[in-house]
Design the sequence.
């Protein structure tokens, strides 16, 4: 069960990242983040009301609040690092956030078997290589590396926090709703500051029309991200966090394959090798 939900998380996160990447070609990155999360809040709000999930409110929701605060910081750091580039270095480094939930799992006493340890090591290497790291070319700015590591830690922290934010399904709906409300508040504040500094929230001229036309895609990105957090929480609560975290972090492979299938982007040899290693690590983890 853990493996299936974790792999579902990887698929959902990978598709959400791919969709978000396409949308940032039409809209500012922060606008994509805020708009997609607003749509996710509306959908989750309806679910919370329909299921009576608000009755599950308790101290554990502070984990959801913390995840909601950390998430936008991680995302903005990641986007800034991508702007400084090169992307072929930034993207794989960003996936190293998996060490946070894995470390938490080990600290809480989880003891993966030898085969699972090997699977974790192989899968992590595969995840990094699947991003297509640039081993040659222009030097990487120190600021880009620092921002990427901040983003990676943030992504990993969100995974660790959200897994502790609920203990049942209805509680999970409420936790995800709270997380997204905080996401919107923090992201909206950042967007307001950005606009005040002179950066437009929408493209000039046809901004509102473009936003309206892209609403279905924005909704998909927001809901896929929410669903991924939900399936990860279920995976982490029903099995070893170390296994759930590594399998969920296979999303760069999904993103690369989506780009190949939709945009006809050719996979570099290092990406193909990384995908193969990630698959091999997945088999070892699932078998353990």
Sequence:
């Amino acid at each position: 069960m853990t493996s299936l939900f974790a792999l579902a998380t990887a698929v959902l996160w990978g598709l959400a990242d791919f969709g978000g990447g396409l949308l940032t070609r039409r809209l500012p990155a922060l606008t994509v983040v805020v708009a997609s999360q607003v749509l996710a809040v509306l959908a989750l709000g309806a679910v919370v009301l329909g299921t009576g999930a608000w009755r599950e409110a308790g101290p554990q929701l502070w984990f959801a609040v913390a995840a909601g605060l950390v998430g936008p910081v991680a995302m903005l750091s990641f986007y800034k690092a991508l702007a400084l580039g090169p992307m072929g270095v930034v993207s794989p480094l960003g996936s190293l956030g998996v060490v946070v939930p894995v470390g938490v799992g080990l600290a809480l006493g989880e003891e993966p078997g030898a085969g699972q340890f090997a699977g974790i090591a192989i899968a992590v290497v595969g995840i990094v290589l699947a991003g297509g790291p640039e081993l040659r070319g222009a030097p990487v700015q120190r600021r880009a590396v620092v921002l990427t590591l901040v983003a990676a830690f943030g992504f990993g922290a969100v995974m660790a926090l959200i897994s502790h934010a609920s203990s049942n399904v209805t509680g999970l709906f409420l936790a995800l709703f709270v997380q997204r409300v905080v996401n919107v508040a923090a992201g909206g504040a950042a967007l307001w500051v950005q606009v005040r500094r002179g950066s437009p929230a929408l493209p000039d001229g046809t901004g509102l029309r473009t936003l309206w036309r892209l609403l279905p895609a924005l909704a998909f990105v927001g809901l896929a991200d929410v669903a991924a957090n939900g399936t990860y929480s279920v995976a982490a609560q029903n099995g070893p966090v170390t296994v759930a975290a590594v399998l969920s972090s296979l999303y760069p492979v999904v993103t690369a394959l989506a780009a190949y299938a939709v945009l006809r982007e050719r996979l570099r040899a290092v990406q193909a090798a990384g995908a193969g290693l990630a698959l091999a690590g997945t088999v070892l983890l699932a078998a353990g």
About this structure: Residues 2-287 form one domain. The chain has one domain: 2-287. The chain has a mean pLDDT of 80.
